[in-house]
């Protein structure tokens, strides 16, 4: 059983209210609607005009991911205070690290940002791995400046390193 303190309930209420505001739809990649529920619960059964290719997909900026991750981390940390044996953050960090250091043009940049945002400690070995990823991204950009995936990877490594640098020993 989870015993929620008033402080935790307040964090959850404020977060829900904040995420329900239209200005936050963009963070989730759904800014072109009046209500997030319109997109979230739309189905071809209820709306026959909808098809997967009938709307233009919005890009999900890494800076938006950074903001969403930090907001989710705040919610998770508030809930974890009420659950003494909670390992959610450790599991999330482990998964983010796994995907951050595994080559995948779609997932790796996002995982790097998440890993940078949620990590509470970092080793020199992890920093070396991120610098190697940055180096590979830079090499790829030099070969062809139009390589969008490399540019995204470079941006992700810079965000991750910026977040992780304060965690390093002096």
UniProtKB/TrEMBL annotation:
It comes from the Eukaryota. This is NF1 protein. It comes from Buceros rhinoceros silvestris.
């Amino acid at each position: 059983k989870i015993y929620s303190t008033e402080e935790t309930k307040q964090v959850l209420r404020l977060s829900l209210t904040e995420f329900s505001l239209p200005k936050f739809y963009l963070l989730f990649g759904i800014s072109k609607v009046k209500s997030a529920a319109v997109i979230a619960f739309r189905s071809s059964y209820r709306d026959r005009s909808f098809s997967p290719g009938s709307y233009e997909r919005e890009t999900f900026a890494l800076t938006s991911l950074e903001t969403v991750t930090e907001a989710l981390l705040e919610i998770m940390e508030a809930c974890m205070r009420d659950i003494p044996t909670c390992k959610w953050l450790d599991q999330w960090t482990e998964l983010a690290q796994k995907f951050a250091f595994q080559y995948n043009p779609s997932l790796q940049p996002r995982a790097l940002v998440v890993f940078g945002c949620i990590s509470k400690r970092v080793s020199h070995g992890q920093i070396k791995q991120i610098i190697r990823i940055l180096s590979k991204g830079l090499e790829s950009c030099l070969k062809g400046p139009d390589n969008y995936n490399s540019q995204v990877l470079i941006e992700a490594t810079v965000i991750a390193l910026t977040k992780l640098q304060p965690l390093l020993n002096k």
